[in-house]
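User: Sequence recovery, please. Input:
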Protein backbone atom coordinates (compact mmCIF):
# COMPACT_ATOMS: atom_id res chain seq x y z
CA UNK A 1 0.00 0.00 0.00
CA UNK A 2 2.97 2.30 0.38
CA UNK A 3 3.30 2.49 -3.43
CA UNK A 4 -0.36 3.47 -3.70
CA UNK A 5 0.12 6.23 -1.13
CA UNK A 6 3.24 7.46 -2.94
CA UNK A 7 1.30 7.61 -6.20
CA UNK A 8 -1.44 9.62 -4.49
CA UNK A 9 1.13 12.02 -3.08
CA UNK A 10 2.34 12.53 -6.66
CA UNK A 11 -1.26 13.15 -7.76
CA UNK A 12 -1.65 15.77 -5.04
CA UNK A 13 1.25 17.76 -6.50
CA UNK A 14 -0.92 18.54 -9.53
CA UNK A 15 -1.81 22.22 -9.51
CA UNK A 16 -5.30 22.71 -8.09
CA UNK A 17 -5.59 19.22 -6.55
CA UNK A 18 -8.09 19.16 -3.69
CA UNK A 19 -8.22 15.42 -3.14
CA UNK A 20 -7.46 12.10 -4.79
CA UNK A 21 -8.14 8.42 -4.45
CA UNK A 22 -7.20 5.13 -6.05
CA UNK A 23 -10.21 2.85 -6.36
CA UNK A 24 -10.90 -0.73 -7.41
CA UNK A 25 -14.20 -0.59 -9.27
CA UNK A 26 -14.71 -4.37 -9.24
CA UNK A 27 -14.70 -4.59 -5.44
CA UNK A 28 -15.93 -0.98 -4.90
CA UNK A 29 -13.03 -0.46 -2.48
CA UNK A 30 -11.08 2.77 -2.19
CA UNK A 31 -7.51 1.54 -1.78
CA UNK A 32 -6.22 4.89 -0.52
CA UNK A 33 -7.27 8.53 -0.46
CA UNK A 34 -5.72 11.89 0.36
CA UNK A 35 -7.96 14.80 1.31
CA UNK A 36 -6.31 18.12 0.61
CA UNK A 37 -9.39 20.13 1.53
CA UNK A 38 -11.98 18.62 -0.78
CA UNK A 39 -14.70 18.80 1.89
CA UNK A 40 -16.35 15.39 1.38
CA UNK A 41 -15.62 11.72 2.04
CA UNK A 42 -13.33 10.48 -0.75
CA UNK A 43 -13.99 6.85 0.19
CA UNK A 44 -17.72 7.41 -0.34
CA UNK A 45 -17.02 9.22 -3.61
CA UNK A 46 -14.89 6.28 -4.74
CA UNK A 47 -17.77 3.90 -4.13
CA UNK A 48 -20.12 6.10 -6.13
CA UNK A 49 -17.65 6.59 -8.95
CA UNK A 50 -17.38 2.84 -9.43
CA UNK A 51 -20.96 3.04 -10.73
CA UNK A 52 -19.97 5.83 -13.13
CA UNK A 53 -17.02 3.84 -14.49
CA UNK A 54 -18.98 0.61 -14.79
CA UNK A 55 -21.89 2.31 -16.57
CA UNK A 56 -19.67 4.15 -19.04
CA UNK A 57 -17.54 1.13 -19.91
CA UNK A 58 -20.63 -1.06 -20.30
CA UNK A 59 -22.25 1.55 -22.57
CA UNK A 60 -19.13 1.91 -24.71
CA UNK A 61 -18.88 -1.86 -25.10
CA UNK A 62 -22.52 -2.07 -26.20
CA UNK A 63 -21.81 0.61 -28.82
CA UNK A 64 -18.82 -1.30 -30.15
CA UNK A 65 -16.08 0.90 -28.71
CA UNK A 66 -12.92 -0.54 -27.24
CA UNK A 67 -12.92 0.21 -23.52
CA UNK A 68 -9.12 0.39 -23.69
CA UNK A 69 -9.51 3.66 -25.56
CA UNK A 70 -10.97 5.49 -22.54
CA UNK A 71 -8.46 8.03 -21.28
CA UNK A 72 -10.59 9.65 -18.63
CA UNK A 73 -14.08 10.64 -17.57
CA UNK A 74 -14.54 14.32 -16.74
CA UNK A 75 -17.32 15.67 -14.55
CA UNK A 76 -17.50 19.46 -14.59
CA UNK A 77 -19.01 21.23 -11.60
CA UNK A 78 -19.36 24.95 -10.94
CA UNK A 79 -16.17 25.15 -8.86
CA UNK A 80 -14.47 21.80 -9.46
CA UNK A 81 -13.45 19.23 -12.01
CA UNK A 82 -13.75 15.57 -11.04
CA UNK A 83 -11.42 13.51 -13.18
CA UNK A 84 -11.66 9.70 -13.30
CA UNK A 85 -8.78 7.96 -15.05
CA UNK A 86 -8.92 4.18 -15.56
CA UNK A 87 -5.42 2.77 -15.18
CA UNK A 88 -4.76 1.21 -18.57
CA UNK A 89 -2.16 -1.41 -17.62
CA UNK A 90 -4.39 -2.54 -14.76
CA UNK A 91 -7.75 -2.32 -16.53
CA UNK A 92 -8.47 -6.02 -16.02
CA UNK A 93 -8.04 -5.48 -12.32
CA UNK A 94 -10.42 -2.50 -12.42
CA UNK A 95 -8.28 0.28 -10.94
CA UNK A 96 -8.92 3.99 -11.49
CA UNK A 97 -7.47 7.24 -10.20
CA UNK A 98 -9.97 9.82 -8.98
CA UNK A 99 -8.87 13.45 -8.78
CA UNK A 100 -10.78 16.52 -7.62
CA UNK A 101 -9.43 19.80 -8.98
CA UNK A 102 -10.24 23.40 -8.14
CA UNK A 103 -11.43 24.89 -11.47
CA UNK A 104 -10.01 28.32 -10.68
CA UNK A 105 -6.56 27.02 -9.81
CA UNK A 106 -5.88 24.18 -12.23
CA UNK A 107 -4.78 23.69 -15.79
CA UNK A 108 -6.88 20.76 -17.01
CA UNK A 109 -4.61 19.73 -19.89
CA UNK A 110 -1.59 19.79 -17.59
CA UNK A 111 -3.44 17.76 -14.94
CA UNK A 112 -4.36 15.14 -17.53
CA UNK A 113 -0.75 14.93 -18.73
CA UNK A 114 0.52 14.50 -15.18
CA UNK A 115 -2.06 11.78 -14.48
CA UNK A 116 -0.84 9.89 -17.57
CA UNK A 117 2.71 9.99 -16.20
CA UNK A 118 1.63 8.87 -12.73
CA UNK A 119 -0.47 6.08 -14.21
CA UNK A 120 2.49 4.80 -16.24
CA UNK A 121 4.58 4.44 -13.08
CA UNK A 122 1.82 3.15 -10.80
CA UNK A 123 2.49 -0.23 -9.20
CA UNK A 124 -0.13 -1.96 -7.10
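Assistant: Recovered sequence (124 residues):
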Amino acid sequence: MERVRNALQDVMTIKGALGSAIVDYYSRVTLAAIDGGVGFDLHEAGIGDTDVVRAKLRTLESLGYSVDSVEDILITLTKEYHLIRPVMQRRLQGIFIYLVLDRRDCELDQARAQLREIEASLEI
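The domain at 2-121 is CATH 3.30.450.30 (Beta-Lactamase).
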